[in-house]
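Question:
Now give any protein.
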Amino acid sequence: MEYFGRPFLLRLEHTLDSSTFCCNYGITTLARDEKMFHLGASNNPSNWLGPIWLVANYVVFRGLMNYGYNEEAERVCEKSLKLLGNDLDKNGCMHEYYNPDTGEPIMNGGFINWNILALTMAKEIYKI
């Protein structure tokens, strides 16, 4: 597989495209143009149907850092921190996943677990 040639760059462009994955608060878990894209809470693990989920933001962040796309990784980090900070300010807690356009929580308030990955991103980007 070619990682740094045209196929890799096309995948990167697709991931960072605001009409598919990239949004105000990071990376959606499913492209917006997929027919199953759905932001409502459900038992079909809805965190994989399009909302912002910090695990997905972290995985994309990690890949960007591994391949030297530090500026793009920093943007994912900043969006993640903004999302969680806004949630803490507004609701006094963090949630498991969020609307990619508004940052509004979708469900599971009081959720901390992998949201802490945002601090891991910040530690690496800002060397803290």
About this structure: The CA atoms of residues 8 and 87 lie 34 Å apart.
